[in-house]
Amino acid sequence: METRWILNEPVNSQQVAEIVKTLGVDENLATLLVQRGITTFEEAKTFFRPSLDQLHDPFLMKDMDKAVERVLRAINQGEKVLVYGDYDVDGTTAVALVYTYLKPFFKKKKIEFYIPDRYQEGYGISHKGIDYAAKNGFKLVIALDCGIKAVERIDYANNKGVDFIICDHHRPGEVIPAAVAVLDAKRVDCNYPYDELSGCGVGFKLITALSMKGLGTIEQVYDLLDLLAVSIAADIVPITGENRVLAYFGLKRLNKDPRPGIEAILQHANIYRRDEDHLEEDDNVLTRELTISDLVFLIGPRINAAGRIDKAADSVRLLIAEKKEHAEKLAASINDLNDMRREFDNRITEEALDMIAEDPMLRDAKSTVVFNEHWHKGVIGIVASRLTDYYYRPTIVMTMANGLITGSARSIKSFDIYDAIDNCSDLLEHFGGHKYAAGLSMKPENLSEFQQRFESYVSEHLVEEDFVPELEVDLKINFRDITPKFMRILEQFAPFGPGNMAPIFWTDHVYDAGGSRPVGGHRHLKLTLAQQGDQELGIAPLSGIAFQKADFFNRISTGEPFSICYHLEYNTWQGKTTLQLNVKDIKFEEDL
Predict the structure, then answer these.
(1) How far is CA 317 from CA 109, 295, 320, 513, in A?
(2) Helix (H), strand (E), coil (C) string for 105-157
(3) Domains of the chain by range and CATH?
(4) pLDDT per residue rounded down to tens, the chain (592 residues)
(5) CA-to-CA distance for 510 and 532, rounded, in angstroms?
(6) Are 398 and 352 in contact (CB under 8 A)?
(7) What is the pLDDT of residue 416?
(8) Are 341 and 305 contacting, i.e. CB atoms less than 8 angstroms apart?
(9) Residues 6+ away with beta carbon under 8 Å from 156
(10) Burial letters 250-273, b for 16+ CB under 10 A, else e
(11) Which residues are CB-contacts of 542 (< 8 A; sequence separation ≥ 6)?
């Protein structure tokens, strides 16, 4: 699929010059900083030197005082408390974080956790979960990463004498549930300064507030930042403001001393190797420093796999495990489920692609809405993401569960899929989510009309240009600009993620320096690249990798010059770390 390269608009040259003068960095780095809204020394200091002192007072969040008072009352009166969370990574890390923090302040069996079954209960607060709390004497439920739209279910809980504290980060509906406290910075009546926290992040603010009122210490709160970093990465929330600070220190915790459950996951992901310098047989060291991408692609899917294929409660048990032996058993089981998940999503993706290819109406539509009652509910979100990548259009993948059609939606850059689904809300039993990802359920008889109305909405709100994927490029540079100092400072831009993506660079007049070759079953390209004019300056060629770009090899190998867009990264292989261009796209002169 052809991709359009979009170079960022020029920034204010005076601001760039001021950053060059103040920080002593080159013009390219100064431009990257100004693009990120950093125009003063103080802003640069905050950006390059994250501090936990930069976090906001949790009591600025509406209802936080009520939530803290209710938790402290439950402890003081010996009430039973249930920590309840969604079955995805954000929900399970949130439950692990809050449960781990609160557990020492409760007597045995006075605190438990509960994860709803994806298939029997569905997303969010369930009647079954409320009934479990009421039947077993839980007076208070702390709901994490869910609940902001559970108006009817909170009323149901209130009638059963079960209090709820809701800690959510999704968009509220018109009515706020009548819980004891509803913590959600996206509430229109909440003045909290940052509204992009993950569900686990809202739970973190709750335990921070509790520590400020004398329940535990702030050091015990910060000890749980590794769980929060996994949540931030896996839930794809912006890594800006507080999230950037929390992710930064969470990654430090993960790289220094991961908890047993995460260490066991990393071993299955082959990120640990034996430490030959130590005598203890169970000593391990990381093969390289973990990044946000590792949390997204290595840790997140394994935590998710339990809830997708079996019971998400096992993910919580893994994350709260205190003994390595117990963690290793749980991690092995969850890794097997992740392998099974891969098989399911690969097969279903192929079936969905075949379905679209064989149906002219589906193939030529502006949206993708596919349904098969036999598809596994636990992987339809992954399949929706794959189909979105393949066709680059708003996508909903649906299956049958408990008598209802249930679906996962994914979107493209210029389209708010939540609004599109909201426009069809009269046909739905439930829906929720974000601009780019959502979930929904409906009665089977509404499917046909939903497909038609969703397709009409997409057609009315998008133009042909919107269906061409864009590659946003930060800056045009030359290979000679990539100096050791440039790389040292660029590394300090991390952690990268939405709102602070790893910069994409554009370099023209590049050619094969002689070592390029197809790899990975002739699917990828291992590159050795130089830029015209570099040889005379004594600049050595750079190594690169271009995934899924092997089709370019025949033309590249002739020596014809071309342009590339790429990330700069370090690649560790067999204990050796080298600079590498991660090439995102290749274009020859006539295609630019």
Answers:
(1) 16, 18, 5, 52
(2) HCCCCCEEEECCCCCCCCCCCCHHHHHHHHHCCEEEEEEECCCCCCHHHHHHH
(3) 58-216 (3.90.1640.30), 359-467 (3.10.310.30), 471-591 (2.40.50.460)
(4) 789 999 999 999 999 999 999 999 999 999 999 999 999 999 999 999 999 999 999 999 999 999 999 999 999 999 999 999 999 999 999 999 999 999 999 998 999 999 998 878 878 999 999 999 999 999 999 999 999 999 999 999 999 999 999 999 998 989 999 999 999 999 999 999 999 999 999 999 999 999 999 999 999 999 999 999 999 999 989 999 999 999 999 999 999 999 999 999 999 988 864 444 443 444 556 667 899 999 999 999 999 988 888 888 999 999 999 999 999 999 999 999 999 999 999 999 999 999 999 999 999 999 999 999 999 988 999 999 999 999 999 999 999 988 999 999 999 988 999 999 999 999 999 888 778 889 999 999 999 999 999 999 999 999 999 999 999 999 999 999 999 999 999 999 999 999 999 999 999 999 999 989 999 999 999 999 999 998 888 889 999 999 999 999 999 999 999 999 999 999 877 778 899 999 999 999 888 7
(5) 6
(6) no
(7) 95
(8) yes
(9) 127, 130
(10) bbbbbeeebbbbbbbbbbbbebbe
(11) 479, 482, 528, 529, 530, 579, 580, 581
pLDDT of residue 281: 45
Which distant-in-sequence residues (6+ apart) come within 8 Å of 147 by Cβ? 124, 125, 154, 164, 166, 167, 168, 177, 179, 182
Q: Residue 578 and residue 571: Cα distance in Å, rounded?
A: 5
Identify the CA nearest to 181 among candidates 271, 107, 91, 72: 72
Long-range contacts of 49-55 (CB under 8 A, 24+ apart): 50/244, 50/245, 50/248, 50/249, 51/245, 52/222, 52/245, 52/249, 54/242, 54/245, 55/208, 55/242, 55/245, 55/246
How many angstroms separate the CA atoms of 487 and 585, rounded?
Answer: 21
User: Tokens 């149906």 correspond to what residue?
Assistant: 359
Which tokens hold the place of 574? 């067999």
DSSP code for 177: -
Beta carbons within 8 Å of 65's beta carbon, 6+ residues apart: 59
Burial of 55: CB neighbours in 10 Å, binned 0-12, 13-18, 19+:
middle
* Max Cα distance, the chain (Å): 80
> 415 in helix, strand or coil?
coil
Q: Which residues of 87-126 are buried (b: 16+ CB within 10 A; e: fewer)?
A: bbbbbbbbbbbbbbbbbebbeeebbbbbbbbbeebbbbbb
CB 5 within 8 A of CB 585: yes
No. of helices (H) and no. of strands (E), the chain: 22, 21
DSSP assignment letter at 429: S
Dist CA 421 CA 415 (whole Å): 11
For residue 214, what is the DSSP state?
A: T
Q: What is the distance between the alpha carbons of residues 586 and 549, in angstroms, rounded to a whole number?
A: 8
DSSP 3-state percent helix, strand, coil across the chain (nearest 5): 45, 20, 35
Q: Rounded CA gap, 16 and 9, in Å?
A: 14
Q: Encoding tokens for residue 260?
A: 């047993």
Tracing tokens 């431009």 back to the chain, one arrives at 31
